[in-house]
Design brief:
The chain is α+β, with helices and mostly antiparallel strands. It has a single domain (3-305), classed as T-fold, CATH 3.10.520. It has eight helices and 14 strands. The strands form two sheets. It has an eight-stranded antiparallel sheet with strand order 2-3-4-5-8-9-10-11. Strands 1, 6, 7, 12, 13 and 14 form a six-stranded mixed sheet that branches. A hairpin with a 7-residue loop joins strand 6 (172-177) and strand 7. The two termini are 19 Å apart.
Length: 307
Amino acid sequence: MSGHPTAGPVDEERLGLVRAEPVMGTLVSIDVRFPVGPASSGRTWARVRGPAAVDVAMAAAVGALHRADEDFSTFKPTSWVSRLRRDEISLDDCPRQVQEVFRLAATCRDRTSGYFDPGWRADGTLDPTGLVKGWAADTASAALTAAGLTTHCVNAAGDLRVRGRPGPRRPWRVGIADPLHRGRFVAVVEGTELAVATSGTAEQGDHIVNPRTGAAASGLASVTVVGPDLAVADAYATAAVAAGRDATGLLRDLARDGWEWLAVEDSGKLTYSAGFRRHADGLVVASFAEAPAEHRPSSGAGATLGR
């Protein structure tokens, strides 16, 4: 929701391609950068491999996003999730990726003491879409990496997966939007191998519900979680917002596991884990050479700034 690649000078050492794809009821942007060789040669990955290779890689990433939509949409009657909800099939009848996401959702429910609850719906049926957007962005990022495009940012409506360095000796910079003052940032996350997920009530409103009370979430305007896995970060951020003022214990547990987090209370007060530091200008910044955690819960189954 609130992660933004931030505007900055164009890097002569990095050329790139940006594609915005409408999918999953939102807009997902894919920003790919190509390293350039010695200035005299002007050779880029794109020129060496050829434009067809770039097109194939981008198509694979976009295809991963649309497959996630086809598999998990609760609005498409032919999706696996819709068929599960109608009891036409069992989870065992679903393809591997659907089983993986459902298991991961169940694991995140247990890890968050039920505050991320894929089963909390008025009709009592399962719905893993709270982490599917992050999972789909991770899958698209993996497709780009497998094709050799190792420097990129996949931005799924403000939840971002970044890899590589967009400029020489310079990380990606992800601005965390102020949920109470549109157009302002409360923090910046810098890194080369990161997942950054933000969940909040400012833009989503009553979409986030405390599953223990059935009431709309309150107490926290937004929570950002930073780690190595966007699907899990997405689930954890949603869980913390759902827990509201009771999220302190959950967030401390996540920090002990290596995840970093930043919360904005309804009053505007900021709290954050040790990986964030407040600079002299008042901006809170977290800088990571690599992802701050290598932990992903077992599923039981086998606006960037200055780009």
